[in-house]
Amino acid sequence: MNFSGIFNRLQRVIGVLLTAVLCCTAGAHVAAQAATHVAAQAPNLARAAIASAHPLATAAGEDVLARGGNAFDAAVAVAAALAVVEPYSSGLGGGGFFLLHRASDGHQVMIDARETAPSGILPRHLFDAVGNPLPGATTRGGTAAAIPGLPAGLEHLAQRYGSLPLSVTLAPAIELAREGFKTDRRYARITQLREAMLRASKESALFLDNGRAPAPGYVLRQPDLAATLQRIAGEGAAGFYRGPVAEGMTAAINAAGGVWQLSDLASYRVVERAPVRFSYRGANITTAALPSAGGIALAQVLGMLEHFPVGEVQDAEYAHLLIEAMRRAFRDRLQLGDPDQTAIPVAELLKKDKLKQYFMDMRRDRATPLPPPAATGTGAGSVNTTHFSVVDAAGNRVAATLTINLLFGSGIVGRGTGVLLNNEMDDFSLRTDVANSFQLRGGTANSVAPGKRPLSSMTPTFVEDEKGVLILGAPGGSRIISQVLLATLEYLRRPQVNLKQLVAMPRYHHQYWPDHIEIEPEGFSAAWRSALEGKGHQLRVVNRQWGNLQAVFQPRGSGAAQAANDPRGNDVAGY
Ligand code: GLY
After folding, report:
1. For the segment 287-340, what is each residue's pLDDT rounded down to a tens digit?
2. Is there a cis peptide before residue 291, judged by omega within 30 degrees of 0?
3. Is the shortest distance between the CB of 385 and ligand 1 below 6 Å?
4. Most C-beta atoms within 10 A of its C-beta, which of 47, 157, 434, 464?
5. What is the reported pLDDT for 96?
6. Is 455's C-beta closer than 6 angstroms to any atom of ligand 1?
7. Which ranges of the chain have pLDDT less than 50?
């Protein structure tokens, strides 16, 4: 949202506070103080911006900024609100990565709130007697759900980096859950896709209207989720990981064949990780560390192309090089996994000499197919996840990508909690010859083990150059990485920033295997296609657009910050 919006919201907040001052004797002093504080912030708010996948989540973050919160406080508010209004993408029952930049000292860190495999998971839960993966074991039922990380991430963000208590930053989400919000066309379309799964239990049927996908405009109220959020606001993450919420989630998961123990929840911890940082043709890029594969892939692709001028990403000659680089980076992904459980050769993968050699091995005139992994993949699954970007007037930044994995996750809702649980176990590699829902293969570094974090593609990123800083990220499984890559190159190529164009531009993607370029249906000419086919690439036109990129730009100097939402997110085609 651009920041004329925040001024309107600010006026509304001031109006509410002044009303409180006029109407209430008790508390008038506090309200008057708050109103003064808000007014004092006003001149600076033009330097702040938020982009998220839902206007109500953006508004929640704006309210918190207008109340004097910083970008980290706003991120708590946006993440919690997204859990309510975009329940199919992310939520308390999922996890994610928060990439932070603190303006006062330049500290940059990634809060890893990724889910972990339950301690009781055993091969027999996921494989049959002869070692074949049990169909659906990582996407449906209790064995699909990993231990959630988001609530611990929110508490960590608030305590370590925020300036406001959770009781303030969670308030907008609690209100949205308790009072309800009007669902949109996107909600209607996605619930249609998952209607049968959601109808399976009384708790998950809450997302439907009398067992059917609701029409747009339906008011969705989530009183149990409001109570869970209220608990977290009062008790911190312990209100989620211990006591009745933990018990309700564990009961639901285990009734559906899962193996959660209360101790898995009680022992969940976020991890602060050093982000992947590199420079590319004069720009400084900060991006996701393991257990995301995204930052390493971005650094590898740009490292391969470092000595090559930034090209027009829609130009067929340049697209060929980008695709060849993606192919190589995604092949190296087979070596990645949870760095706390397996030694991953990150430094080796990012060595300049190695990336230069990859570049030298590319041919300008031909695709260079790489030997395939052992067997072919299964069909693509639907995609999901959510991203938001925040910058405040002081220059604090957050790029956060959050997920419950596939749309509506496992579909299991913790009893009496309103918490929809993820199916993040599908991001593990069950066997090197078996693809997951994103057609991704993995190596043994990403095999399932108790307490382990599954490998992700989420790529929250900061790009800094002489123009300013771009904060971006996207949903879309493996296609997250190519969305962030293409948008980064588009940003760097242009002397003037055009955020709207950056989030809207047509997309293509290659992930080593299957060996084809996926392209969106619109935006690529016949000449572009035949130029790539002429080099030996296979093209696969996907029948709808993908992604929902959310970008914020804060220019150097004193100019206003900008935000842009992917137009794909405005309609059902955007998931
Ligand atoms: N669940 C999608 C991802 O983390 O990449």
Report:
1. 999 999 999 999 999 999 998 889 888 899 999 999 999 999 999 999 999 999
2. yes
3. yes
4. 157
5. 98
6. no
7. 1-43, 376-382, 571-575
Q: Locate 117 and state its tokens.
A: 């495999």
pTM (whole model) above 0.90: yes
Q: Is 385 a catalytic residue?
A: yes
- With a 6 A CB cut-off, is 460 part of the ligand 1 pocket? no
Please name the residue whose Cα sits nearest to atom 4 of ligand 1: 456
Among 330, 403, 421, which residue has the most ligand 1 atoms within 8 Å of its CB, making it the best to mutate?
A: 403
Q: Sign of the CA dihedral 140, 53, 112, 70?
A: negative
Cα angle: 24, vertex 25, 29; to 5 degrees: 100
What distance in angstroms lies between residue 186's CA and the mean position of ligand 1's atoms? Answer: 20
Task: Yes or no: say if 558 and 172 are a contact pair by the CB < 8 Å rule.
Answer: no
pLDDT computed for residue 467 by the predictor: 98
Catalytic option among 138, 191, 228, 385: 385
* pLDDT score recorded for residue 8: 46
Neighbour-count burial for 458-480, b at 16+ CB within 10 Å, e otherwise: bbbbbbbbebbbbbbbbbbbbbb
Residue 383 pLDDT: 57
| Residue identifier of the C-alpha nearest atom 3 of ligand 1 | 456
- In angstroms, rounded to a whole number, what is the distance separating the alpha carbons of residues 481 and 425? 20
**Span from the CA of 558 to the centroid of ligand 1 (angstroms):** 36
